């Protein structure tokens, strides 16, 4: 017996269901294509969103490209500073006279000789800046300044400023100190003195001596000063 396909008008009571989507399967059957469309819809809903995947990949690639470009700029800046360094190009953070070649050579004999020389500290600070550890020198200098203070109110104010800028874990310039030294500082901050940060200053001094100083001596910044001074002396 052959099935007869109904193509007449849809009863009024079914129109509401169709409007709400309730008659989707029946309408599909009447049209003769509903089965294929329903299957296609289900398959599409199970298929991963290719556009979303591509967007994530593009976003990740863009972030990686930005980070790589920033790193390349930093390297070019360090290279430019290293190759073109002269005493005239070093920022003067402390008042000092231009050192002779012999004085510059003395900085390689010991870290103490470097740190006792204002010009040496300026150059070393510039080197630390290229390594993103300038806060170590800034903290050491702030402690030296505090030691020269005699006024009690000024001592308390400077001590609080040093703590907030270099000791607080919330500070972007926080220096690296162990738990014991931090505990000592917290105790001494109850009644600050010019020597409140003495233990911390020694620890940072030791860190710069052991970690940064050897790299400074082998850096292009220091070598260019030696070679540049030697050429100037020979020309004169």
Short recap of the structure:
The chain is an all-alpha fold and 236 residues long.
Poorly predicted tracts of residues: 22-45, 80-85
Individual helix count: 12
> Structural class of the secondary structure composition?
mainly alpha
CATH top level assignment of the domain at 111-229: Mainly Alpha
Overall residue-averaged pLDDT value: 76
Reading the helices and strands in chain order gives HHHHHHHHHHHH
Distance between the termini: 118 Å
Taking all Cα atoms into account, the compactness measure Rg is 36 Å
Reported CATH architecture of the domain at 111-229: Orthogonal Bundle
CATH level-four homologous superfamily name of the domain at 111-229: Regulator of G-protein Signalling 4, domain 2
- Beta strands, count: 0
State the helicity in percent bands: 55-70%
Shape: globular
CATH topology of the domain at 111-229: Regulator of G-protein Signalling 4, domain 2
Q: Hey, roughly how much beta strand do the residues contain?
A: under 5%
Membrane topology: Lipid-anchor
Organism: Monopterus albus
Keywords: Cytoplasm, Glycoprotein, Lipoprotein, Membrane, Nucleus, Palmitate, Signal transduction inhibitor, Ubl conjugation
Subunit structure: Forms a complex with G(alpha)z/i2 subunits and mu-opioid receptors; the formation of this complex results in mu-opioid receptor desensitization. Interacts with OPRM1.
